[in-house]
Amino acid sequence: MQMFEPKITIEQLYELFLAAGSVTTDSRNFQPRALFFALKGERFDGNQFALQVLKEGCSYAVVDDPEIARLDKHCLWVENVLQTLSDLARYHRRALGLPLLAITGTNGKTTTKELVATVLRQHYNVGATEGNLNNHIGVPLTLLRLQRAHQIAVVEMGASHRGDIKQLTDIAEPDYALITNIGRAHLEGFGSYEGVVQTKSELYDYVRAHGGKVFLHSDDAILPKAADGIPSVTYGTDVEAQVRGNLMPHLGGYFLAFRLFYEDLTYDVHTHLVGDYNLPNALSAVAAGLTFGIPIEDIVKALEAYRPTNNRSQFIPSTTRDNELIVDAYNANPTSMRIAVDNFASLASSRPKVMILGDMYELGSASEEEHRNIAEYVSQLSGVETIYLVGRAFYALHKEIKAPHLYYFSSRDELLKTLSSTPFHGQLILLKASNSMRFSSLVELC
User: Fold this and answer.
1) Least confident of 209-218, 313-322, 379-388
2) Which of 67, 243, 254, 285 has the most CB atoms in a 10 Å sphere around its CB?
3) pTM of this structure
4) Residue limits of the Mur ligase central domain (predicted)?
């Protein structure tokens, strides 16, 4: 039976990581010689796959089951695999020593991360969060993907429980902080809106304590107070903002257009982002670009060239049924739902408008009230011909909140039957729901 020494240091593990070239937590998908971290979940135990991944090409497996560690000399025993993954990520981040900008917020953080990274890439090699790797596992994995060639890191941080952001900042050690906004989301985990505010503000707390800087949305009702005393670059519509922009008419389209004021010059910026609510997200990218010395002309070009993907404020101009789609179906909470609804209702279009709204998840005891608020609001909305409310939370209100243009569906499958039998033609359609509602699959039927 293989003996083992449960005292591998982080320095020793880091040398193995550098030799391996990559890490993985997925036993089904990894690069040759990767360092495997055997994480545990509610329904799986990565320790059980350690020997398998070693046979299939991983160089080492980091495990916290001593019985597994005894079976192969390439199993590295630690007390806690997740903690070790975090420690290794922090060590790597310190070894690289590059500037790191952390982004969090209730709404718009992924879009903002993409905009900031797009702008910074005009002059720098940028390492940025990929996909939804923004939690206690994703942030360490993001950090461990950074390379010596990277000059700046842009890291997205998500939170669903109190203390989550503090945990992530202790790992990533950001130099710059950007909070997009603070709204009503993940109330099940936070317990209250105040819990959301406290947790998101932990990003400011870190940079305040470590001499960092914030990119601050000065129009926001909460953020300026939370960032009090921290060196900041402000952006917004207020004349006092260091980076200032005002909305422009859509000129027959649905995309965000704004006038950017910089020094004594103005720039008209025409983006491919659907929704005027993206103005502060775009301005934050301008602020970041200017801070890192990127010429304003290059910043404008980058913003105009950016195309959103992954069902986030995404416009699909034509479908097989001649509909135009606005797909914002990756995330939904009471704040983002209301913003999306208002923006859609305000759009000028010759086409009849249809809203298809799905349940909002992770609201806990506030779920019934928040879904009722949305249903009551859209039931009185003008400028939208048809509204479909989809999911169990919305359907529970179908006898209580009624309107001639309001239709309820208990599930996505029930909606699919209707879309298949009586499809829309020539309409402008908004798809908005939490990702768990799987609204992305509706695109083919719209």
Assistant:
1) 313-322
2) 285
3) 0.91
4) 103-288
